[in-house]
Sequence to fold (91 residues):
Amino acid sequence: MSTKEKVLEQIKVEEKEKTNNEIVLYNDDVNTFDYVIDTLMYVCDHTPEQAEQCSLLVHYKGQCTVKTGDLKDLEPRCSKLLQAGLSAEII
Fold:
């Protein structure tokens, strides 16, 4: 008879928690799909397909995360969305 030993290794993993902020765009009854799509392409650097999908999600779900990243990058983008008459906030 042979005896097999099982060795469990404990690995300590340190992860740096990275906090990503998000710009959330909210639905409104004022702006057209084309206007929202054009604004998302200009402000958030979306492709036409991304902007269209986000506008549909906003319309049907009431909100959509349109951009994630560092707060320094998101603040001016969110300000531009607000200046364009869209409802958005950073969370």
The mean pLDDT is 91.
